[in-house]
Amino acid sequence: MQKPELIKDGKRLDGRDFEELRPLKIVAGIIKNATGSAYLEWGNNKVLAAVYGPKEVLPKHLADPEKAIVKCRYAMAPFSSLEEHGRAGPNRRATEISKVTKEVFENLIMLEKFPSTEIDIFIEILQSDGGTRSAGITAAGVALADSGIPIRDIPFAVAGGKIGDKLAIDFNKIEDNYSDADIPIAISPNLDRVLLLQMDGKMTKEEFSRYLDMVERVSKQIISAQKNALLEKYKVNG
Amino acid sequence: MQIKVSKEYLTELLSRQERVDQRGFFDYRSISIKTNTIPNAEGSASVYIGNTYVLAGVKLDVGTPMPDKPDEGVLVTSAELLPLASVEYEEGPPSPEAVEFARVVDRGIRAAEVIDTESLFIEENKVWNVYLDIYVLNYDGNLFDAGTLASVAALLTTRMPRLEGEQVIRTGDLPRLKTKGIVASTTFAKIGNAILLDPTGLEESFMNARLTIATDDEYIHAMQKGLAGYFTRQEIEKLIDTSFEKSKMLRSLISKAVSGD
To answer: Is A186 on the interface with B (CB under 8 A)?
Structure first.
């Protein structure tokens, strides 16, 4: 099938520059029942993240007497895409994303403070337009900070890569589908740790290195959206 | 049976730049690749990396294309961590580990365009589906690299069935599946601050982070970081260099195994 033209007159299809993020807005504390939560809109993505716990471990035999265990569910709503109705229940893609997302937060939560408990992270993609795992991690980072559970840092994530011979960041759905390389990455900015890294496509080492520079440059905007969400919720009136 | 040592002992060895099996940090164990080990399958290969033993089998069936790629065949990759392969493995639906394993192998093969998927088009709404099943028969670490080696070797020696009317002819004088690229993955384990290529099962039981990089001569085709630990950017960039170097050796092993078939 003919690959659609993703770059016109030096701009991306939605008019963005190569290093331009889609509008990003995060609100903290939107699910009242949760210990912590966040709602995120990033371009057309709409994502809810909620954290519950520390709580009793179920089933009991999974409990770790030395630290809390983390469970993570990433799921796309069946109505979330412009395409056909999605199948309910976890598919293989969601299973993998849930696993690598869980691993990001296992690194940052001070699990040793809550032995024999469980911390749940739920990420629900209500509307999807590319980069949903990154949007989910960025939202869950805020939800976790909102929960008050002690963490070492708030991670951010973003996906992008290569379109033709151009590097670009924050792919939307069509770019994600037809790009020449796609790299979701999650980083703990204060600790300088790469916590999630996936990639597929074709990219030289030099391109990958330049792409990481690009991630570094845009990271400030994502981090400030996360901080603003928390400042907004916890600001003291007057 | 796997030998067991304490984390303290292993860490102490690593701090002296030694591994339990005396290898260098960036050395592979001995590798053997045999193709066509299951002649009933259209393609197959058995791979040993040390005591890790993996079998990949390929079958082709007529199916329908994916809606977004109507004139290409479909690759469907699955992995089974068989209960006979390790005391840790249990029966049941695929674990997140098995799903991740299959998807990472699949991504490397897809991104490197190992299969010429356009050659699998039959007619409108009718294409060949390629089913790639990876069986782990004995686990001793580094499934990702063993799985990728076995899968690529199996695909490169797969017979292309023929359609006679509705009937699929799978035997006799058949051409090979059309392939384009060749890829190999390299997997690193981080234990404390030490980074090791080709971790054994013992080493994997103590690793806090894992990084798999699949490359060919020119390009990185897939990467996957796993587990709760982390890598720094500097570490990742250095491992990419190592990956390019080791991938060359692995791909030459595949070529050798495939040419003998």
So the answer is: no
Judged by CB atoms closer than 8 Å, whether chains meet at A205 and B231 is answered as no
Question: pLDDT by residue (tens digit) across A55-98?
Answer: 999 999 999 999 999 999 999 998 998 888 887 777 999 999 99
Can you give the CATH number for the domain in which A93 is found? 3.30.230.70
Number of separate domains in chain B: 1
Size of interface A-B (CB pairs under 8 A): 97
Q: Cβ separation of B221 and A201 shorter than 8 Å?
A: yes
Answer yes or no: is B2 within a domain.
no
Sheet strand arrangement including A166-169 = A166-169, A156-163, A181-188, A193-203, B220-226, B209-215, B184-191, B194-197
- The verdict on residue A108 lying in a domain is yes
How many angstroms separate the Cα of B123 from the Cα of each of B63, B115, B117? 11, 18, 14
- Chain B positions touching A206 (Cβ under 8 A) are none
Instruction: Say whether B222 and A199 touch across the interface (CB within 8 A).
Output: yes
Answer yes or no: do B230 and A196 touch at CB < 8 A: no
In whole angstroms, give the CA distance from residue B106 to residue A204. Answer: 20
* Nearest beta carbon to residue A199 from set B68, B220, B244: B220
Q: Does residue A154 form part of some domain?
A: yes
Taking residue A124's Cβ as centre, other Cβ atoms within 10 Å add up to 18
Q: What CATH code is carried by the domain that includes residue B177?
A: 3.30.230.70
The parent domain of residue B34 ranges over: 7-259
Q: pLDDT by residue (tens digit) across B102-155?
A: 999 999 999 999 999 999 999 999 999 999 999 999 999 999 999 999 999 999
The ipTM assigned to this model is 0.88
Domain that holds residue A212: 22-225
